[in-house]
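hey so u asked for the seq, here:
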Amino acid sequence: MKRKHFIKSLGLSCVIEKTYARDWTGVTPTRYPDPDVISLDPLFDKYRLGNASIRRVYSSPNMLWAEGPVWSSVGKYLLWSDIPNNKQLRWLQDDGEVTEFRKPSGNSNGNTFDHRGRQISCEHGNQRVVRYELDGSVTVLTDSYAGKKYNAPNDVVVHPDGSIWFTDPGYGSLMNYEGNRLNTGSVQPVQKEAVYRIDAKTFKVTKTTDEIFKPNGL
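ran it, structure tokens below
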């Protein structure tokens, strides 16, 4: 692991690169505050917890690509996607156990929870955004825009007003590894890469911008 320290003196700037190995086993404790928790913008400093450190909760050679981590404050668990394996995994706070939560998952990538505790996922494979209801049923929030399927919805967040925002950069449709490669001939993607908004009440989908090159995280 490499850390870069910036030093300014007499109007000059230099970068000192320090390399060290972090012990993920927990045998060697990490001093507080954790040196690897860094605020790239001072506005985020107030959200840092000085006595909290980075922990590795799970590692497995069978997990190919972990994405879309989200915390359930209701269920007290961490959920994430393993895109190529077409499943979702869950870490429980009470015993630290990791289990397979959902398979198939539609090669899901980004996940979040709405204000009622319902999980929302972006599915690469099915080119849609879905919501898992509290009774276990699935609601397709959107699977197309302007008469055409999405490329491969990627990341998703819920706005305080309840609306759902998601990105569609097209990464999941470029090959079969993390979804399904779209047979669109020489032209990809299906839709121009964009950011969309789903209205909380009407479920109307609005394209908010398509000026960002392959918009990803939100």
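The chain is about 0% helix and 40% strand. The radius of gyration is 20 Å.
lmk if thats what u needed
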